Amino acid sequence: MKKIQALLCLVALVFALPLAAAPKKLLVVTVTTGFRHSVIPVSEKIIEQLAGRSGGAFTVEFIHQPAGEPKAPGKPKAGKDGEQAPAFVEAMAKWKEANAAYQAARPAWMKAVAEALKPLAPANLKNYDGVIFASTTGDDLPLPDPQGFVDWVAAGGAFIGVHAATDTFKTFMPYVGMIGAAFKAHGPQVPVEAINQDDDHAACAPLPKVWKIYDEIYQMKNFERAKVHGLLSLDNLMMSADAIKAKQGTPGDYPVAWTKMHGKGRVFYTSLGHREDVWDPAYTDKNGRMNSPEVAQQFQAHVRGGILWALGLEAKKS
């Protein structure tokens, strides 16, 4: 009898213990129908590592680019001899033939893209706590229901956008309103001193007050500072090779990273992340590195903090 009582007590104790929270599920999208950044494979690797180091806070699932994307041929330009020059006429004839083949092949590939993106249908998004657009591009990205996706965020889904996420759906204003801005332009990659606007925020706490980083800096349109909570910004930007040579920036307000609420959903966006050495402290190529390993580690912490905040695992509101 005493053994039974002891066993019952043990069972009661087990059920009284708090259950560990199930990890949040993130769907990471790196599909592009516009420009495709070379950094994407590196960013996929690092995001997967961040999940692995999250202590079970979140897991990731990927939607990768479908294979077989047809490449648009480059259109030739007339030389000094004009459009009647035999060489240009011949080049244009070859381009027209190649472009016809590209236009014929693209619909089948776009169908494969639409199939890959089916997890983003409203009925399927219930399986996820958040979505990351990591350098997605394309105003024609074939989501099953773009408005339904924005509505899912408004209902409480987490959205994390990295770099070219603002170069996606630039003409679909509900998405632009949700993420907070649309890509307008960029100049050459430049060294900048990003101002840390909120060093209490999870995405900025690992960063210095002034963060020196070398990257491609986006200029935005449809941005309203009053509608976002600023994380990183610039007060001047070198926009051309001549400006870089003269070390002369153009003063202004250049938003770099922010958070916002979209309905009940938390949105985190950082425009950084164009370069491989921004993401990966071990990355190197024939040109070496422009960012130190420490900067890459700081950027990883920046993204990790943004993810945790968007998932509601960091309590601070935007």
Give the secondary structure arrangement, pairings included:
Layout: H1 2-16, E1 24-29, H2 40-52, E2 58-63, H3 86-116, H4 122-125, E3 130-134, H5 146-154, E4 158-162, H6 173-179, E5 182-186, E6 190-196, E7 210-215, E8 218-221, E9 229-237, H7 241-246, E10 250-262, E11 265-270, H8 276-279, H9 293-310
Parallel strand pairs: 1-2, 1-3, 3-4, 4-11
Antiparallel strand pairs: 5-8, 6-7, 6-9, 9-10, 10-11
What this model shows, in words?
There is one protein chain. The chain has nine helices and eleven strands. The protein has one domain: Class I glutamine amidotransferase (GATase) domain (Rossmann fold). The chain has a nine-stranded mixed β-sheet with strand order 2-1-3-4-11-10-9-6-7. The chain has a two-stranded antiparallel sheet with strand order 5-8. The longest helix has 31 residues. It is an alpha/beta fold. The termini are far apart.
Features of the shown structure:
318 residues, alpha/beta, Rossmann fold, nine-stranded mixed sheet, 9 helices, globular
Count of separate structural domains:
1
Strand content bin: 15-25%
Oligomer: single chain
Kindly report the CATH topology: Rossmann fold
Second CATH tier, the architecture = 3-Layer(aba) Sandwich
- Total helices: the number is 9
Distance between the termini: 57 Å
Largest sheet: 9 strands, mixed
CATH superfamily: Class I glutamine amidotransferase (GATase) domain
Strand order in the largest sheet:
2-1-3-4-11-10-9-6-7
- Gyration radius (Cα, Å) is 23 Å
| Average pLDDT metric | 93
- What is the CATH C level class, in words? Alpha Beta
- Uncertain runs are 10-18
* Shape field: globular
The amount of helix comes to: 25-40%
Class per helix and strand makeup:
alpha/beta
The total beta strand count reads 11
